[in-house]
Design brief:
Length: 561
């Protein structure tokens, strides 16, 4: 059912009452809470128990990942021969944490391993001939990518000609044609038997590392040098990194991701990793229970890319591997200072783009906004996101660097950049990403054709934002402090697992007063007359206080099927 609100359109899914009663009774939870869980896909009492036990929920067998056997055998061969392995990462927080997890798993098995994270400003997305030539010259025989390269057909083909095997581990959308890699580990592959598709690059890296530890640790390793976060602590420490990478990359906090992030957030405050502890201390988070907001606003940005990095995010990678507390604290302080400068740069870039767009935006007739403007490369994604929020339209920020076009694309729900770019992939040097957040590099001469092809795609696939979702309808009298505490059991909240949105019908000023008398508070002044009004709201509980936030009111008599 579609409902029209004063501010947004809303979708209310009708839930089978018998299912709600069964979940409520078997799981020992209230019916309003059971309604919310059923709306989130919980289909039985067993599902509810698993959802509420995310801290201890076992993950699927990593051997179900695509090409799992081939990956293990190729790494076994490299370990037996002492072959040099390179881990190719990606210059954001997900890529840095994924690189660290993969590097450390191989290191514990005694591998000869190096890492490389390309600088997006000068090298673009993914692999490059220059990188492959350097790795070949250094004697690398096997590249394992993390968080990248599922679209890199040209460069993986070039690596094959050099005699370098490539194992791709990635989580981005699957292109129409796969690269000729030795193995591709991506849960989104059509023939994947792995039951969950939406892990971040760090999550995929951890599950591949689980394969190595399960199948190879009896034959190889451990590493000779004692590292405080290796051995029995390694997996807990890796989970903390996976939580950071997953939250920073905005993957949905559902299914396996919810378990990974819950376990990782629980592990982080007790970390033995010197660099992570230094980052927590510098961010004033040490010793605290972490939330996704803490990670997003502090650690995720700290470990991500920013203007001035060279190459890429190497300093963040170095921090996670450090063993000297004084050195780690100094580098963490430097990275926080860098983050402060990035924020200042990003705000200035957004102000400039906003002003330019407000002056000239009417001239942008295409449904997709393409802006060629001089902003620091590391702020382009941020600016594109802000402009998408302001306009509700897909945005592509384009800059010219080293005789190439570099672009960051961001869009609203209902528009898929990956599908769009796949229809014109021959125009790119490299591209990749998610439906709503992608990027590419291109020869400048291709830009006119790109604009034409993108316009053609948009004409056939116009952006169509989806209505916002209401999780459950309930009587306002059911809004109690006890329900607020139950809803907090849905943590961690984030992408794909937002706080529940509720609908109450025929609300009046009298019913509001009754709810307040039961101990519920309203976060903003609520103007409800004596005329019954349907309201959309959230309920949260913090420090023993239940707080309601009204999101919208429903326009009387306006609804759809």
């Amino acid at each position: 059912m579609i409902l029209s609100g004063s501010r947004y359109s809303w979708r209310l899914e009708l839930i089978e009452p018998g299912l709600v009663s069964d979940i409520s009774r078997a799981a020992g939870i209230s019916e309003p809470f059971a309604r919310v869980l059923a709306a989130r896909g919980v289909g039985s009492a067993d599902d509810a128990a698993r959802y509420l036990a995310a801290l201890d929920d076992p993950l699927p067998d990593a051997h179900l990942l695509p090409d799992a056997g081939r990956v293990v055998e190729r790494v076994r061969s490299a370990l037996e021969s002492g072959e040099l392995i390179a881990v190719h990462g990606h210059d954001d927080a997900d890529g840095v944490t994924a690189t660290t997890v993969m590097m450390e798993a191989l290191d514990q098995l005694g591998a000869s391993v190096v890492s490389y994270i390309p600088d997006r400003k000068t090298e673009g997305h993914g692999l490059s001939r220059a990188e492959l030539d350097r790795l070949h010259g250094a004697g690398v025989g096997l590249i394992i990518t993390v968080d990248s390269c599922v679209s890199d057909r040209e460069f993986i083909s070039y690596g094959n000609k050099l005699g370098i095997d490539t194992i791709v581990t990635d989580h981005h959308e699957i292109p129409p044609e796969l690269p000729p890699a030795l193995a591709i580990v991506n849960p989104k592959l059509p023939d994947s038997r792995f039951p969950y598709r939406y892990m971040a690059g760090a999550g995929v890296a951890l599950r591949v590392a689980d394969l190595f530890m399960d199948d190879l640790s009896g034959e190889f390793g451990p590493a000779g040098e004692n590292v405080p976060w290796y051995g029995p602590r390694w997996r807990q420490e890796s989970l903390a990194l996976v939580a950071i990478g997953s939250i920073a990359d905005k993957v949905p906090l559902t299914g396996d991701n919810r378990s990974l992030v819950t376990q990782g957030l629980a592990a982080a405050p007790g970390t033995n990793r010197v660099g992570l502890r230094a980052a927590l201390e510098e961010g004033r988070l040490w010793g605290q229970e972490l939330s996704p907001e803490d990670v997003r606003d502090s650690l995720g940005r700290l470990l991500g890319r920013a203007p001035g990095d060279s190459p890429g995010t190497q300093k963040a990678l170095d921090l996670l591997a450090m063993r000297d507390p004084d050195d780690a604290r100094a580098l963490a302080a430097s990275l926080f200072e860098r983050q402060k400068r990035w924020q200042e740069s990003a705000v200035a870039a957004w102000r400039k783009v906003r002003e330019d767009f407000e002056r000239n935006g009417a001239a942008v007739s295409s449904p997709v906004i393409i802006l060629e403007t001089e902003v620091p490369t590391g702020t382009a994604g941020y600016v594109a996101s802000r402009l998408t929020e302001k306009t509700g339209r897909p945005v592509i920020m384009v800059a010219r660097r080293n005789s190439e076009v570099m672009a960051e694309a961001r869009g609203p729900v209902g528009f898929n950049f990956v599908e769009a770019f796949a229809t014109m992939r021959e125009l790119f040097i490299g591209y990749g990403g998610h439906p709503r957040a992608a990027g590419f590099s291109m020869d400048p001469s291709q830009m006119p054709r790109f604009r034409e092809r993108l316009d053609d795609f948009v004409q056939s696939n116009p952006p169509s934002p989806d209505p916002r979702r209401i999780d459950a309808e309930l009587r306002l009298e059911e809004t109690t402090p006890e329900l607020g505490r139950e809803l907090e059991l849905m943590k961690p909240f984030g992408q794909g697992n937002r706080r529940a949105v509720l609908l109450a019908r025929r609300v009046t000023s009298a019913t509001l007063s009754d709810v307040e008398a039961r101990g519920v508070r309203f976060g903003t002044p609520v103007r409800i007359s004596d005329t019954p009004t349907d309201v959309v709201f959230r309920l949260r509980s913090s420090d023993g206080v239940a707080l309601v936030s009204i999101l919208d009111s429903i326009v009387p008599g306006v609804s759809g099927g």
